[in-house]
């Protein structure tokens, strides 16, 4: 993909915002090399981070959303998901125009195809416009509201929690069930598991971390998280599945698993997650503020190169990076916890969806760190392991080159500031057939391949 195309694509997704004007200042100039045939290498920068200033949540009389049903839920009745083949600037300009005229929104895509959500009253208009430009498309979801309703089997009201918890990995569960499961782990495996609350969300929900450790002093540390983007429901389900599997089989696990201090944070954006269950299935950000322009994209709020390309200064944007690095209590809690823990951090794995990608730094631009070949090699092993457990093809590459440049991501901060060697963002299933609305019967196959991914990274850590 060429440079021009990437910039246009980032703009199209509404993530392009130019460089930050200054809360984070680089103290030394980037060291770049041009001796690699594929990527430009950029070394770790020293970033001066300001302490976050927390702003109060301002209450207003504004409605939560202007598109709600009488039950107070956002309705996607008649909305469709289309996969469009766009491969030149002219076609992209058309999508940008349709987006600006509020006929469509963007979900995801790559250099040859972009997934768009088409609003019901705009279907004919968008169809005509795409035909005029000879843009091929196919309809992935005929009726998004129906897909949302069919995604998750109803949870039985009187489901008893004789096992000590209600999680099933056959359905997506509400916030309370995830918290209940985390507490269950601490009570059931007191010798191995410690549950910590590392902070609270904007709306006061606890951010929980499950530490699993055999207590050996030489252990290296690995962080695994999910649910930083609210609508990516497959990710908290996956992280809890992995924890559950490791605890059930701990004694039989290899040394590369046992001799690790694991830190699992299944749900980094609890307010957003709750909101996707109760109000708007497709909410992405946290829940600071009210109305259509509420929320900060927590994966644009980390302090490494905060505010750069691919993060927006506009509070209404899906990629709004906040008022400063770590301005949000959710990201500030992660920063404080990771910085203060006496852990030998070696890997940071953040689960997202969708697209089936194994991404490594840098995400802030189309450059890679000097040791990118190690990240690429382990990434390729991850992709192979996923295939070997029956999973689909995952694409491996540096985030900025492979997806789009987006600054303020947790992976860049883990690598750039915390110096964790193996920092990955793993975009789970699917490939845009269902996108974020992945039916619950995909939880187990997806989580199993994610477990295979985690095993490969733990093995790489054991060799450091
Ligand atoms: O844009 C994101 O935050 C991630 N994709 S998603 O569709 N799940 O929102 C990708 C993040 C990749 N890493 C960085 N850009 N740092
Ligand atoms: Zn995400």
Can you describe this structure?
The protein has 464 residues and is α/β, with parallel strands linked by helices. The chain folds into 2 domains: 39-151, Metallocarboxypeptidase-like (Alpha-Beta Plaits), CATH 3.30.70; 175-462, 3-Layer(aba) Sandwich (Aminopeptidase), CATH 3.40.630.10. It is built from 13 helices and 17 strands. A hairpin with a 5-residue loop joins strand 9 (193-200) and strand 10 (206-212). Helix 6 packs across helix 13. The longest helix is centred in the last third of the chain and has 20 residues, at 443-462. The chain is globular and about 65 Å long.
Could you name the key traits of this structure?
alpha/beta, binds N~2~-sulfamoyl-L-arginine, 464 residues, binds zinc ion, Alpha-Beta Plaits, disordered N terminus, Aminopeptidase, 4-stranded antiparallel β-sheet
Topology record:
Blueprint: H1 3-12, E1 25-26, E2 32-33, E3 40-42, E4 47-48, E5 80-85, H2 89-100, E6 104-109, E7 113-118, H3 123-132, E8 137-141, H4 144-151, H5 175-188, E9 193-200, E10 206-212, E11 220-225, H6 234-248, H7 255-258, E12 260-265, H8 270-278, H9 329-340, E13 345-353, E14 357-360, E15 367-368, H10 372-388, E16 395-398, H11 399-402, H12 410-416, E17 422-428, H13 443-462
Parallel strand pairs: 3-15, 11-12, 11-13, 13-17, 14-16
Antiparallel strand pairs: 1-4, 2-3, 5-7, 5-8, 6-7, 9-10, 10-12, 14-17
The protein binds N~2~-sulfamoyl-L-arginine and zinc ion.
The site of N~2~-sulfamoyl-L-arginine has 15 residues, from helix 12 and strand 17.
């Amino acid at each position: 993909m060429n440079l021009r195309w990437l910039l246009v694509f980032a703009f199209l997704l509404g993530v392009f915002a130019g460089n930050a004007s200054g809360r984070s200042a680089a103290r030394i100039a980037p060291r770049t090399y041009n001796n690699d045939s594929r990527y430009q290498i950029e070394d770790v920068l020293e970033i001066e981070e300001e302490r976050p200033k927390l702003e109060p949540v301002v209450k207003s009389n504004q409605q939560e959303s202007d598109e709600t049903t009488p039950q107070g839920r956002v309705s996607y009745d008649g909305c469709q998901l289309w996969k469009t083949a766009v491969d030149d600037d002219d076609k992209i300009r058309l999508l940008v125009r349709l987006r600006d005229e509020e006929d469509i929104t963007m979900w995801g895509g790559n250099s040859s195809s972009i997934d768009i959500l088409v609003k019901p009253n705009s279907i004919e208009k968008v169809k005509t416009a795409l035909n005029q430009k000879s843009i091929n498309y196919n309809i992935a979801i005929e009726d998004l509201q129906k897909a949302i309703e069919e995604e998750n089997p109803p949870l039985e009201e009187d489901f008893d929690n004789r096992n000590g918890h209600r999680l099933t990995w056959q359905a997506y569960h509400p916030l309370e069930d995830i918290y209940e499961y985390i507490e269950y782990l601490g009570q059931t495996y007191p010798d191995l598991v410690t549950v910590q609350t590392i902070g609270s969300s904007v709306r006061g929900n606890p951010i929980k971390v499950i530490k699993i450790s055999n207590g050996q002093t030489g252990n290296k540390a690995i962080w695994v998280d999910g649910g930083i983007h609210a609508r990516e429901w497959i990710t908290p389900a996956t992280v809890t599945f992995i924890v559950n599997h490791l605890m059930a089989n701990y004694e039989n696990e290899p040394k590369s698993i046992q001799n690790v201090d694991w830190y699992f944070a299944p749900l980094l954006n609890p307010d957003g997650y709750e909101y996707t269950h109760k109000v708007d299935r497709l909410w992405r950000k946290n829940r600071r503020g009210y109305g259509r322009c509420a929320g900060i994209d927590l994966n644009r709020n980390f302090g490494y190169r905060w505010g750069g390309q691919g993060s927006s200064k506009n509070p209404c944007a899906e990629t709004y990076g906040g008022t400063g690095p770590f301005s949000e209590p959710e990201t500030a809690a992660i920063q404080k916890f990771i910085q203060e823990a006496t852990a030998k951090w070696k890997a940071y794995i953040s689960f997202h969806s969708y697209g089936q990608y194994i991404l490594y730094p840098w995400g802030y631009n189309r450059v890679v760190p000097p040791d990118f070949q190690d990240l690429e090699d382990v990434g390729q092993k991850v992709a192979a392991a996923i295939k070997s457990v029956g999973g689909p093809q995952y694409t491996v590459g540096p985030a900025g080159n492979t997806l789009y440049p987006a600054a303020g991501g947790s992976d860049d901060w883990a690598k750039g500031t915390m110096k964790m060697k193996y920092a990955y963002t793993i975009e789970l299933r699917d490939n845009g057939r269902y996108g974020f609305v992945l039916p619950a019967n995909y939880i187990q196959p997806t989580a199993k391949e994610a477990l295979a991914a985690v095993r490969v990274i733990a093995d790489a850590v054991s060799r450091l």
